[in-house]
Amino acid sequence: MFTELGPMKLLTIAIVAMFVFGPEKLPEFIRNATGVLRRVRAFADSARQEVRSELGPEFKDFEFEDLHPKTFVRKHMLEGDGLAGLEEIRNALDPRPELEEVTAAVRDTGAGRAPGAVSLAKGAPANPSTRHVFDPDAT
């Protein structure tokens, strides 16, 4: 909740609070604010317990953090049996096997090259005496 509050921001807030409330009323304001925070936390905890008790025993492992989409996916899809299905999908969408087949086919056909053809493996002409003229408009 307060992950972006650094020491400089906290010091700035303290100085502003000192000017707004004054040194006499600041301790009383801090006590009141912490009391309100305690009551809000107690209310939230009691509401969570009430929801858990109303859901029944089949939801005894229910956590409110599980409602966050990232946590839900991590818990239900990436653990246990769901991981095998995810691997199948990942393997089906992986283009590497097809690219390896194409690369192997191109390398195999490179053995019977025409004179002047460029070798993909080395980038040099197959026959050094025959060179092609580079045409920038053709590319």
Automatic annotation (TrEMBL):
InterPro entries: TatA/B/E
Annotated spans, Disordered: 110-139
Record protein name field: Sec-independent protein translocase protein TatB
Membrane topology note: Single-pass membrane protein
Species of origin: Streptomyces violascens
UniProt KW Membrane keyword: yes
Keywords: Membrane, Protein transport, Translocation, Transmembrane, Transmembrane helix, Transport
Localization, UniProt: Membrane
